[in-house]
Amino acid sequence: MTPVPLATAFAPPRPRSSARALAAGTSLAMSTVLGTAGVRPFRERMELRRSTLNDTLPVHSKWWREHGAASGELLYVALGDSAAQGIGASRPDRSYVGVLAEAMRAASPRSIRTVNLSVSGATTALAVRDQLPRLRTLSPDVVTVAIGANDIADWDAAAFDRNLRAILDELPRHAIVGELPCFHFPRNERRVAEANRMLRAAAGARGLAVAPLHEATRRQGLPGILTQFARDMFHPNDGGYAVWAEAFRPLVGARLDALELRPDGAELAESVGVGGRR
Predict the structure, then answer these.
(1) Contact 167, 127 (CB under 8 A)
(2) Rounded to the nearest 10 degrees, what angle do helices 157-169 and 186-205 cross at?
(3) Sequence-ordered list of residues with C-beta below 8 angstroms from that of 62, at least 6 positions apart, any chain
(4) Mean pLDDT taken over the chain
(5) Whether 77 contacts 140, CB under 8 Å
(6) Cβ atoms of 120 and 86 closer than 8 Å
(7) Listed ranges 13-22, 61-70, 131-140; the one with the highest mean pLDDT
(8) Residue 26 clears pLDDT 80, i.e. is over it
(9) How far apart are CA 243 and CA 237, in angstroms?
(10) Who has greater pLDDT, 158 or 108?
(11) What gap in Å lies between CA 271 and CA 276, rounded to an integer?
(12) Which of 268, 252, 260, 237 is nearest to 101 (CA)?
């Protein structure tokens, strides 16, 4: 079977909101609201759900480390936080990183190695400290970045802007940077809007492509809130991650198409450097 261009051939299935899923999501959302308000039985259930997801952190991290050791003709590198790790998904490869990696494998005649540098809980500051040094040792052909959601709770606009620019300065020119997703609540959304303005400005100044993650998640509306989040009502579930993957898909597909259209070896020569260097 001859592989076809990912940009036109691959589209993750769009999540559908069945009546049963909506009912379950409504119950979960109400339970979370009551738990957040301090109603004891619901708060205990909320803490248990969060604890259960936290137990998956080392499992996902180990899975990505093991798969990152595999060989491949093309190298896909992901930077980010728990969303890139796939916390909340039924399996690590159901994260948006896993969905995109599988799509590239299906579409490319060459093997794909995926190195996931993301760390659960990472902020932009921690990404600068922990992920950039590892990125400097690699020569990726495809790069996706989604970072900043963990900066919103303790928002410092100046620090976010400084750290984000430090990250973008070290990305290869073909890297794809995802916006912060929709947080839905007005207070957080004001911060997210400011963060995304900074992100688009910084990425634009460096010629980096931006995946419209905020709009992709925002337009899911109430059905998305009720059916596309994991049991902690913070991380996406499989359906939510499919939406994330769709936001990145056209840009990742265009990058893969460009790699396949160049003479053998040309794509490696162009991706040796970072920060616009060759």
Answers:
(1) yes
(2) 30
(3) none
(4) 81
(5) yes
(6) no
(7) 131-140
(8) no
(9) 10
(10) 158
(11) 9
(12) 252
* 3-state SS class at 112: strand
> Is the Cβ–Cβ distance between 254 and 235 less than 8 Å?
no
Tens-digit pLDDT profile for residues 230-265: 767 678 999 999 999 999 999 999 999 999 765 444
Q: Pick from 89, 23, 36: which is nearest to 223 by CA?
A: 23
What is the rounded CA–CA span in Å between residue 238 and residue 98? Answer: 11
Q: Is the pTM of this model over 0.85?
A: no
Least confident of 6-10, 73-77, 138-142: 6-10
Provide the 3-class DSSP secondary structure of residue 13.
coil
**Residue 21 has which token pair?**
């899923």
What's the pLDDT tens digit per position in 191-202?
999 999 999 999
In angstroms, the CA 81 to CA 119 distance is: 5
- Written as six digits, the tokens of 251 are 């840009």
Q: Is residue 46's pLDDT more than 70?
A: no
CA distances from residue 86 to 242, 245, 271 in whole angstroms, order as listed: 11, 12, 26
Say how far apart CA 107 and CA 215 lie, in whole Å. 26
Residue 195, sorted as left (phi over 0), alpha (psi -120 to 50) or beta, turns out to be alpha
Identify the pLDDT of residue 72: 94
Both tokens assigned to 28: 């979960």
- CA atoms of 262 and 253, how far apart (whole Å): 14
Token look-up 């769009």 returns 14
Could you tell me the CA-to-CA distances from 179 to 30, 129, 197 in Å, in that order? Answer: 28, 21, 9
